[in-house]
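pinging the channel bc i need a second pair of eyes. not urgent but kinda urgent?? the chain im working w is below, pasted from the shared doc
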Amino acid sequence: MKKLFLLSATICFAISSFAQNTPDANPPVFNPAIKFHGLIHSRFETSLTDSVDVQGKFSETPTRSNFRIRRLELRADIQLNSKWSGVIRIQFPDLKTSTPGKAIELAYFQWSPMDQFNIRGGQMKMPYELDELTSHEDLRMIDRGTTDRIFVNNNLGSYQPGLMFYGTFMKAKTPLSYYAGVFNGSDRSVPYDDNPGKNYVGRIEFSPVKSLRLAVNDQYTQQAKSVSANSFGGDISWQQKLGDKMNLIVEGEYIQGPNISLFNSSLDSAKNIDDYMMSGYFGQALLRVNIMKNWCRTFEIGGKYEHTDPWDSKSASVASAGNSINTITGGIGFIFLPDNDARLQFNMIQTNYEKEFPGSLKNNLMFVTQLQLRI
């Protein structure tokens, strides 16, 4: 981890020095512009399992069907000149955050003097975890997976205030991209950090061929002066055009890190954060067929398998390890307009627990459909 950040810092310093010492023959002209975007995800979901509600929770009298607005957001892209820009995005449905209400998801500035060196500061998405980094405007399935949710709930992903350096080398042939940042390690839209440490995040992506991308992540988190842990993972993304009308996307990931919420809630007098680790992996594939009909441009079909261990303890001192989760998702979709501006998806989601607990935890099957409109 330290070597990764030392290398990134050295590269950033060298590039920054070069950028400062090299005169700009064409200084950027101040020409401000703002573009507004809107997105809505309207959803119907139903539980196909007795005694399980639409949130996957056991209930003797469950609410087994539900209409809701999953996302409703407004985004402004601010361009001041060719090097200075910024983004503001507000999510309107209330989210599970430490600051209840309408959440500011994105609010950052960006300075981009060259491809190899950029600076971003403010609230942004952390460069960590493939599922989370995939834009929700182009998710392969309707939702991200259980592994993603548990890492986000432990503040190891998603949107956080911080500062990040990133860039891409050999962009034309075999792109090599790096991301290095420091973040609060707490929730989004918080006025002050809620723990004494910070999260240091690094990610490297490499594309040896045009359709293939390999990546590794590392994240160091410090919860207290003597309590720290490391999270790491790797992922692969292969996006291949199979012909004039077909595109195939195949992706996979493995990730591991500390379950901070379990560690903090434990009443054990002597506890080690390394005994409270969680992990997960997934594989997914999506085939898109360009049918180019009057009523529909693209038909898609895909599936995903995911395994999640919320508490993968290797220590005999821990009395009970976690209850692993296996999730199988199958789906079809229809894209009516370019760039997913109008997209309709149908998913069946089967969730199986390693251990079922009568009256509280039960395997279940869900059906979810979602309409996406983007302007």
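so The two ends are 41 Å apart (CA to CA). and The chain has one domain: 2-21+29-374. — does that match what u expected or am i reading it wrong
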